[in-house]
Predict the structure of Heparanase-like protein 1.
Amino acid sequence: MEFRLSLVLFLVSLPAILAQEFGKANNVENVKVVVNGILSVARVDNNFVCATIDWWNNEKCNYGHCPWGHSSALNLNLSHPLLAKSIQAFDQLRIRIGGSLEDQLLYDVGNLKYPCHPFRKLENGLFGFSRGCLNMSRWDELNQFFSKTRSIITFSLNALLGRHHKGGGVWVGEWDSSNAYDFINYTVSKRYEIDSWEFGNELSGSGIGASVGAGQYGRDLIKLKHIINHLYNESVAKPALMAPGGFFDQSWFARLLQVTGSGTVDIISQHIYNLGAGVDPKLVKKILNPHYLNRAYGLFHDLELTVKKNGPWASIWVGEAGGAYNSGGRNVSDTFVNSFWYLDQLGMSAKHNTRVYCRQSLVGGNYGLLNKTSFVPNPDYYSALLWHRLMGQGVLSAHNNGSADLRTYAHCTRGRAGITLLLINLSNETNFITNVENILDTDLGAHARNISKESYFKRGLKRTVSWVGRKALDEAICREEYHLTPKDGDLRSKTMILNGAPLEITKDGNIPELEPTRVDMKAPLTIAPLSIKFVVLPYFDAQACL
């Protein structure tokens, strides 16, 4: 009787609840989100979220601005407490060290044939810079920091050493592996943990600044694989080999996999800057246009097919992605609006078997997850952290029957039962009321798995009782909601709001807690205009997540 009375009171108050939620809304649209938890459509790495540390220094400028400061791997302030805390909040963050200047980087170890000096501006140099050099004392400092923060490291090696410029951006000749050999040997001797070695940066296809033919590139990868196998011969685990770290070119990538064959390349990595130039005044419009965002689908789909056909032994990574190239969009890439693009990319790439997604950058440029001087997190940092903590390895199919402005993604929840939905509302005027359905509740799901409604009900009841324990059956069962909005409604705000509270560094200098709002499962699930919501459904019956 008490349960029925509560239900009646809730239904009576529902119009008032919706009026409060949608006070300023022009449109309200009811949508159905169907999640297939029977089988996962893909699986990501446990440390899917990754960030990059680049080599650019304070002389790197784009469009009259120089946004890199001291964020290079050569001079990043490793002693700043907030930098370490920002990484440690992930409990093992993947970090890729690499970038455009890596193919001009020397390692000051062994019999180095060239003078060792920092990168400096050079008019005729590749990307307008001279060669640079990494001292082993700095390499030691970096590895002490990585050990302290429990980071998982990918290091991208110089792949141009020994080649010569033929003209038109094309480089020919065999790779000189001597400096890389000495560097890897030093790393092994110091017992520094490297999860993967990458070979070169954006040399695939026509390349960015420089290119190498797929055949020669493949032969050099075989050489590098032999070096890794030899130097890690006595190690319990060998680092993976990743390549090519460039923009996808179907014939070039296919040729690379054919030349190297099974047992050489463990990870195929691509770079994505699908928003275009950072100076584009239409950057925000692109981010909020679902049809523009959908163009990236082909990049993930085509690479997935190419790898499946030519190198099914290799996993797929996005080795670098910053949205807008040339250091990102000023007052766009480091603001709330960029999270629409970033989280959509994470969701879309995961559905196409991308195991890891590396964001350009952790620090530096306009697209850094952290401010380059204070290390205070930008909005995308919190988006990345929430994804890392909530979205598990199992990727589920989730579709909605509403407007293209509503983007829906679903994963098994990380570390616990149920699923987590990611809802992204690109509309500036429509509130969506979502009804989440399990495909098992539909005729399609029952037919596909030959599961009767009765058997599903019995299984669901058993699982509900086991989770609820001795709770009264009419006690509220809740979901968790993490609603993300910009401060003061300003899409270009650098302050993200979580469930109405600003995310700011605490008084004692720590990353703030990311606390959810617990909502009765009977309450409508809504997503306001131009906002993002993670929704944890702990009682959702998903066989793929068991």
Residues 1-23, 451-474 have pLDDT under 50 and may be disordered. The radius of gyration is 25 Å.
